[in-house]
Amino acid sequence: MTFEIKKIGIIGAGQMGNGIAHVCAAADYEVVLSDVSEDRVRSGLATITGNMARMVARGKLSDEARKTALDRIKPSVGLARLADCDLVIESAVEKEDIKRKILVDLCAVLGPRAMIATNTSSISITRLAAVTDRPERFMGIHFMNPVPLMELVELVRGIATGEETFEASKAFVRRLGKTYSVAEDFPAFIVNRILLPMINEAVYTLYEGVGTVEAIDNAMRLGANHPMGPLQLADFIGLDTCLSIMQVLHDGLADSKYRPCPLLVKYVEAGWLGRKTQRGFYDYRGEKPVPTR
Ligand SMILES: NC(=O)c1ccc[n+]([C@@H]2O[C@H](COP(=O)([O-])OP(=O)(O)OC[C@H]3O[C@@H](n4cnc5c(N)ncnc54)[C@H](O)[C@@H]3O)[C@@H](O)[C@H]2O)c1
């Protein structure tokens, strides 16, 4: 028998957290969506509302199903409303110190049988599990962006993750209608171990003047048949998240090939984080994206 999950808490209502809330509600789970402020939670709910409305307009969701799914998502500022969840998925910013604090605070309020998962893109599951009171009930459940559209979820066990937790995670991913790949707990797992060095190399290509933003993106779209260019993709992921992942790879594998490009660092220092701040390698404030270099 696998552990039954009925109610899911999500910490972080940003681009990933609201996407996870969307797919969980659409799969008939009760959902609590939490963030640090009312504004952040409201903005996450507004994104879900807009995305579901678009799905209705395209005939991919009935209006009835949209209403029911939205009703299943309850907002929460802070962690108190997560106490009776069966599974809590942490999807706050990609900063280990912030995630550690969230997990410690969460364990203080969460029922003892509940599972905890993290949507981290790169940080050690084993290390995050070790700050909780339940490393055997802790998993990496790594969704892809945008969550409602992307089929893959990476499942990552920490060294102490128990079989029941692993099985329940597989059943959860299946119920969402998604497919999982199992990755071992090494920095950035599978997808980002391969994807982020390519994106970082694209930023070096820009930094060294080998090509412009448009030349690089067109080259990889039309020459390597990628659906979007690497710099456009970086803006989509969030440049702060890209930088954090490169830092985890660089620190965790101690290989200079993972050195974050200084230009990526500069964009993050400027607060140009990509689509979520309206500016990154492209400026999104006008009618169509304009390259910033
Ligand atoms: N962006 C991607 O493509 C992508 C893909 C897969 C996984 N991830 C991972 O998902 C996580 C979230 O990334 P995102 O792209 O949604 O970032 P985001 O910047 O869009 O959202 C992060 C959210 O976390 C909230 N937050 C910050 N501190 C918090 C705290 N102490 N408690 C609760 N909430 C807090 C912020 O207010 C914000 O709403 C990261 O771990 C990231 O690595 C990102």
TrEMBL record:
<feature type="site" description="Important for catalytic activity">
    <location>
        <position position="142"/>
    </location>
</feature>
<dbReference type="InterPro" id="IPR036291">
    <property type="entry name" value="NAD(P)-bd_dom_sf"/>
</dbReference>
<keyword id="KW-0520">NAD</keyword>
<dbReference type="InterPro" id="IPR006180">
    <property type="entry name" value="3-OHacyl-CoA_DH_CS"/>
</dbReference>
<keyword id="KW-0560">Oxidoreductase</keyword>
<dbReference type="Pfam" id="PF02737">
    <property type="entry name" value="3HCDH_N"/>
</dbReference>
<feature type="binding site">
    <location>
        <position position="121"/>
    </location>
    <ligand>
        <name>NAD(+)</name>
    </ligand>
</feature>
<dbReference type="InterPro" id="IPR006108">
    <property type="entry name" value="3HC_DH_C"/>
</dbReference>
<dbReference type="GO" id="GO:0070403">
    <property type="term" value="F:NAD+ binding"/>
</dbReference>
<feature type="domain" description="3-hydroxyacyl-CoA dehydrogenase NAD binding">
    <location>
        <begin position="7"/>
        <end position="183"/>
    </location>
</feature>
<feature type="binding site">
    <location>
        <position position="99"/>
    </location>
    <ligand>
        <name>NAD(+)</name>
    </ligand>
</feature>
<feature type="binding site">
    <location>
        <position position="276"/>
    </location>
    <ligand>
        <name>NAD(+)</name>
    </ligand>
</feature>
<feature type="binding site">
    <location>
        <position position="35"/>
    </location>
    <ligand>
        <name>NAD(+)</name>
    </ligand>
</feature>
<protein>
    <submittedName>
        <fullName>3-hydroxybutyryl-CoA dehydrogenase</fullName>
        <ecNumber>1.1.1.157</ecNumber>
    </submittedName>
</protein>
<dbReference type="InterPro" id="IPR008927">
    <property type="entry name" value="6-PGluconate_DH-like_C_sf"/>
</dbReference>
<dbReference type="Pfam" id="PF00725">
    <property type="entry name" value="3HCDH"/>
</dbReference>
<dbReference type="InterPro" id="IPR013328">
    <property type="entry name" value="6PGD_dom2"/>
</dbReference>
<feature type="domain" description="3-hydroxyacyl-CoA dehydrogenase C-terminal">
    <location>
        <begin position="189"/>
        <end position="284"/>
    </location>
</feature>
<comment type="similarity">
    <text>Belongs to the 3-hydroxyacyl-CoA dehydrogenase family.</text>
</comment>
<dbReference type="InterPro" id="IPR006176">
    <property type="entry name" value="3-OHacyl-CoA_DH_NAD-bd"/>
</dbReference>
<feature type="binding site">
    <location>
        <begin position="12"/>
        <end position="17"/>
    </location>
    <ligand>
        <name>NAD(+)</name>
    </ligand>
</feature>
<dbReference type="GO" id="GO:0008691">
    <property type="term" value="F:3-hydroxybutyryl-CoA dehydrogenase activity"/>
</dbReference>
<dbReference type="GO" id="GO:0006631">
    <property type="term" value="P:fatty acid metabolic process"/>
</dbReference>
<feature type="binding site">
    <location>
        <position position="94"/>
    </location>
    <ligand>
        <name>NAD(+)</name>
    </ligand>
</feature>
<dbReference type="InterPro" id="IPR022694">
    <property type="entry name" value="3-OHacyl-CoA_DH"/>
</dbReference>
<feature type="binding site">
    <location>
        <position position="145"/>
    </location>
    <ligand>
        <name>NAD(+)</name>
    </ligand>
</feature>
